[in-house]
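Please, structure for the following, as tokens.
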Amino acid sequence: MILREGDVVLHHEGQRIKIGPGFGLHAFKGHYSGEKVNSQGYTIYLNEYVSFVRKVRLVLQGE
């Protein structure tokens, strides 16, 4: 998953984590994780074309 803008909120066992803001300026073809099948969940990508400085928030939210 490429988080191109905004935030994403993930829910797991009564907890939530909010990640963002996203930025996704390009996409890749093929497998992102290198695995043939990702049976354990998702991979979230934030990507840019060149070297960059960005701030991303990771906020753990209660039940």
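Residues 1-25+43-62 form one domain. The first strand starts at residue 8 and ends at 12.
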